[in-house]
Design goal:
Elements lengths: L12 H10 L15 E6 L2 E7 L8 E6 L2 E11 L12 E11 L9 E5 L2 E7 L15
Antiparallel strand pairs: 1-2, 2-7, 3-4, 4-5, 6-7
Amino acid sequence: MKLVTKNTRTPDFFDEVFDSILKSPFYSLSNRIVKMQSDLREVDGKYILDIDLAGFNKSNINISIEDQYLTVAATVNEENKTDSEEYIRKERHFASCSRSYYVGNLSEEDINATFVNGILTITFPSDKVENTNKKFISID
């Protein structure tokens, strides 16, 4: 026996238009996985950490340091508000992400951060970051 499903509603013009907009790669954060892609480089005795946070506001980014780890956390809460109750479609979006980086015995005075055009840049001295002895675990 074959299960047959029937679509009881035919998509209309508004469904097609809004779905095509929302599936566009240029439409906000709502259709992509939020990742904190980062690049680390060393220049003149300093580490420079660039983190891609496009779509986030500076006020929604938190940087903390605890137990030798620098943690960057960001949230976004978009709600399209309308004054009229006569809307066809209403979308909301919430995203949150965080990432931690080992930095050794740094204090908050050692760390500088700027946020320009969706890129968070964190600078800290490379000579204060301790190299830990790595131990590798064998895989069975």
